[in-house]
Write a sequence for this structure.
């Protein structure tokens, strides 16, 4: 049993890592126009700074989750945080756009390890009677960086160039030796490495998302070939997992209809979120000629209202059906994105703020009830697998959405942002439909 002092220090390190991984998704979007100008690259190509991070994290989630028991939570978390910080240093000093994208790929690997091992470690640090307190802190660590990320990015960009967004995270690498010193040892269960499954998982997600992302900026035939190859590898991956004695995919949970619908709801909703998050900075800075600082503050109402609404949605879930609350939230999100499409040609700041605040309220109403429905749909003994799929659904939605931004920008030209917002609205409505389907279970 950990002492109260060591528990606090170990939890601080975990919350720090989870916060940094969430912040890495919330700050870089603001700097995309600056990065595009810095490397004299197209908007569609620059979006891969976001795509690479989301893609590598998505590819690594299931393999990391399957290897936690054999490698040990402590080792995986410490290694993941170290990789994340070192990759941040690489991002800051990247001389070319391809080098920056490569560093972001490595950073995504670290983020996946931190996300999966960090949440799982809460049950090691806290006694059973205090576990709920630990998970509440985890939710806060993920939500707050999303709320303040655009503001932090805007503040940094007001006084420095975009590489400082990455350099600012490097000092937090000191948490690695601290975590090793205070975190308890965890039990390791020998488990063979499923190299074939890991390879098929990486090829399936990597080829498909890469194909979608390059469809608008490269040879269409090559992109379609990548997408088809990705789907083929995914079929092979599912077939291989069905015969594996310890599969990475939780097939038992997917047989539970509310769980499967919750996963689809999550994928669609996070795709809608990232379609807006990545495309809106280009609208504000390129078309409306606002500064990066103004863009950061204009984007803040969405995550801020999400952070405010999510706890309220959690209390509502106790009294009302989670599916109903999620569906209402996604309807509000779709409405907010629809209203952004019809933003005035020369909008006042308030015209943007209240629309994005509506999106944030809708996303907050969706998030907590849907996560609750997903985590409670299966038996308590499968909470770890459910948590892994919860993270996987989030990253798959982000990867799909950011790849679609690249595709839409490549094909949509001047109207790319509008098309991205319409696509986000469609995904929000699809998520709402999946959520509503849980009512008829």
């Amino acid at each position: 049993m950990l002492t109260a002092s060591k528990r606090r220090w170990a939890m601080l390190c975990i919350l720090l890592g989870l916060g940094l991984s969430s912040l890495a998704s919330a700050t870089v979007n603001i700097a995309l126009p600056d990065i595009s100008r810095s490397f004299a690259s197209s908007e569609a190509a620059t979006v891969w700074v976001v795509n690479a991070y989301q893609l590598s994290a998505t590819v690594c989630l299931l393999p990391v989750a399957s290897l936690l028991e054999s490698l040990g939570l402590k080792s995986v978390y410490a290694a993941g945080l170290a990789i994340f910080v070192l990759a941040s240093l690489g991002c800051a000093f990247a001389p070319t756009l391809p080098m920056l994208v490569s560093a972001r790929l490595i950073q995504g690997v670290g983020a996946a390890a931190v996300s999966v091992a960090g949440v799982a470690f809460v049950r090691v640090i806290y006694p059973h009677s205090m576990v709920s307190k630990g998970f509440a802190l985890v939710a806060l660590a993920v939500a707050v960086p999303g709320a303040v990320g655009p503001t932090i990015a805007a503040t940094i960009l007001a006084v420095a160039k975009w590489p400082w967004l990455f350099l600012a995270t490097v000092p937090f690498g000191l948490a690695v030796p601290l975590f090793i010193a205070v975190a308890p040892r965890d039990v390791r269960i020998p488990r063979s490495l499923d190299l074939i499954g890991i390879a098929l998982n990486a090829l399936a997600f990597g080829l498909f998302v890469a194909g979608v992302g390059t469809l608008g900026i490269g040879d269409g035939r090559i992109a379609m070939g990548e997408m088809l190859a990705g789907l083929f590898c995914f079929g092979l991956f599912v077939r291989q997992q069905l015969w594996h004695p310890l599969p990475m995919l939780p097939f038992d949970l997917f047989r539970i209809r509310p769980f499967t619908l919750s996963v689809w709801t999550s994928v669609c909703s996070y795709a809608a979120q990232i379609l807006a998050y990545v495309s809106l900075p280009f609208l504000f800075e390129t078309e409306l000629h606002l500064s990066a600082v103004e863009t950061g503050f204009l984007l803040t109402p969405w995550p801020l209202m999400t952070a405010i609404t999510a706890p309220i949605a959690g209390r509502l879930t106790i009294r009302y059906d989670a599916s109903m609350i999620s569906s209402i939230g996604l309807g509000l999100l779709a409405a907010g994105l629809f209203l952004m499409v019809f933003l005035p040609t020369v909008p006042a700041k308030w015209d943007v703020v209240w629309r994005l605040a509506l999106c944030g309220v809708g996303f907050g109403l969706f998030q907590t009830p849907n996560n609750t429905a997903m985590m409670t749909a299966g038996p308590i003994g499968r909470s770890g697998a459910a948590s892994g799929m919860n993270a996987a659904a989030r990253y798959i939605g982000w990867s799909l959405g950011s790849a679609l931004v690249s595709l839409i920008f490549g094909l949509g030209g001047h109207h790319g942002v509008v098309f991205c917002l319409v696509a986000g609205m469609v995904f929000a409505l699809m998520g709402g439909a999946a959520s509503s389907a849980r009512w008829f279970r």
About this structure: The radius of gyration is 21 Å. The chain has three domains: 1-184, 195-249, 252-441. Residues 195-249 form one domain.
